[in-house]
Design a protein that fits this description.
- By secondary structure, the protein is of the alpha/beta class.
- The chain has a domain of 229 residues: Carbamate kinase (3-Layer(aba) Sandwich).
- Helix content is 40%, strand content 22%.
- The longest helix has 28 residues.
- It is globular, with a radius of gyration of 24 Å.
- The two termini are 44 Å apart.
Length: 465
């Protein structure tokens, strides 16, 4: 009997019909396996919770809060009606949901009166999406004859630091989770995304948080596999909206998956699989609409195969930032000062490239952080050292990813030959010593053509060059 952790995202638990479908999937796999479920909030709920919080702080209208709570109540009650047939179980779940919504309403009214919204308050508010979803999903399982209990992330043993909005799990989490969840006598339904710090205050795990919750639980209880249920057939060779012939990748390594996520693939966030890496637990991405398909397995070690390239990713939410000046030549510590200034401003640098003349450093940053990045650099450098700080919003980052690139000659030549033949100008190039990816920047107008040309060049859709 295998021990599985299954995580379901917001689309998979969007409404009562989808929740019922999740129950059917669990019932199908529960016959031969021990299962722990991790759930996101119902689709769109977390965004609406945060929007109401901001309006409450800005406008202070209690009447708006009451209207919003009514809509949220109706949404979850409708899901209960659609997903749970047994009236007794439905009523039990409804009472839990009402209790949670009463707590939420009081929190909103407090924000209205205070007129301010702290990171700690935002964590409290955003936690309610999962807190409302977990009892409903647990009720669905009980309605289907599967024993189940619901837990918050904190009740399941996830303890974090106090970095509200983007907290990190503490090492003690790995000891606490087995104490709280094992032995598995039923199917626990655990809220993803949320936890508590050591003071008992609710925290959230940031971007990819529900996936991280599942990964933590799987690593801590010694799961045989962690399954992330998505709406896609698995990890794809590229975005099928750009290349309709994109295929599912059956097997990739953790490192390849992290490179893909970092450079724009939307399947898994790099942080989400860190605990699995740590404990060597295989991860599988499966499709909710095709449950018997194996999907994509992500394993610890690099899988070398004839195809040196596994995937092509595209990140559209980036900008190019250049610093230049003759005064940079031969001046020690310019790069260190630039990167320290950006780090101090909380800027994430996606890619770096420096000319051998030392007169120019190019960086790719997240587009939303561009203005902040420029301000930080202008504050750091006098005009006699850095003459020009320029930017380009109208760019995209393309990454070619694959463990088979390491030690294989001619991969870069093929990449840039494909760009040349397609008439695409490359604005910046970056390659790490790991040789797991070659990333470069092109104009936004050329980005999708670049992906299509590379997908064809390396035969990722099954075509042969």
């Amino acid at each position: 009997m295998a021990r599985l952790v299954m995580k379901f995202g917001g689309v998979s638990v969007a409404d009562g019909q989808r929740l019922r479908h999740v129950g059917e999937l669990v019932k199908h796999f529960n016959r031969d396996n021990e299962i722990v479920l991790v759930t996101s909030a119902l689709q769109g709920v977390t965004d609406s919770l945060l929007e109401c919080a901001r309006k409450s702080a800005g406008e202070g209208k209690v009447s708006n809060v009451i209207d919003f709570i009514e809509r949220l109540t109706e949404r979850h009650n409708q899901a209960i009606v659609e997903a749970i047939k047994d009236p007794k179980i439905a009523q039990e779940v409804r009472e839990i949901v009402i209790q949670k919504l009463n707590e939420l309403e009081k929190a909103y009214i407090g924000i209205c009166y205070l007129g301010e919204l702290t990171p700690r308050s935002l964590d409290l508010i955003s936690s309610y999406g999962e807190q409302l979803a977990a009892p409903v999903l647990s009720g669905v399982l009980r309605d289907m004859g599967i024993e189940s209990q619901h837990f918050t992330g904190a009740e399941a043993g996830i303890v974090t630091d106090s970095e509200y909005g983007d907290s990190r799990p503490l090492e003690k989490t790995y000891d606490l989770i087995p104490q709280r969840l094992l032995p598995l006598k039923s199917v626990p339904v655990v809220t993803g995304f949320i936890a508590k710090d050591e003071k008992g205050i609710i925290t959230t795990l940031g971007r990819g948080g529900s996936d991280l919750s599942a990964s933590l639980i799987g690593a801590a209880i010694g799961a045989d596999e962690i399954w992330f249920w998505k709406e896609t057939p698995g990890v794809m060779t590229t975005d099928p909206k750009i290349v309709p012939g994109a295929r599912t990748i059956p097997l990739i390594s953790y490192r390849e998956a992290m490179e893909m996520s970092y450079f724009g693939a939307k399947v898994l966030h790099p942080r989400a699989i860190e605990p699995a890496i740590k404990k060597g637990v295989p991860v599988r991405v499966k499709c909710t609409f095709d449950p018997d398909s194996p999907g994509t397995q992500i394993v610890h070690d690099d899988i070398l195969k004839v195809d040196v390239i596994k995937a092509i990713t595209l990140n559209k939410n980036v900008a190019l930032l250049n610093i230049a000046g003759a005064g940079m030549i031969g001046t020690p510590g310019i790069a260190a000062r630039a990167f320290s200034a950006l780090a101090g401003a909380g800027i994430n640098i996606v890619m770096i490239s420096q000319a051998s003349s030392e007169a120019n450093i190019s960086m790719v940053v997240e587009e939303r952080q561009l203005e902040k990045a420029e301000d930080a650099l202008r504050s750091e450098f006098p005009k006699d050292i850095v003459k020009e700080i320029s930017d380009n919003h109208d760019v995209c980052a393309v990454a070619v990813v694959g463990a088979g690139m390491a030690g294989t000659p001619g991969v870069a030549a093929r990449v840039f030959k494909a760009m040349g033949e397609s008439g695409i100008n490359v604005l910046m190039i970056s390659q790490g010593s790991s040789e797991h990816n070659i990333s470069f920047v092109v104009a936004s107008k050329d980005a999708e053509r670049a992906v299509q040309a590379l997908h064809s060049e390396f035969g990722l859709g099954g075509e042969r060059k």
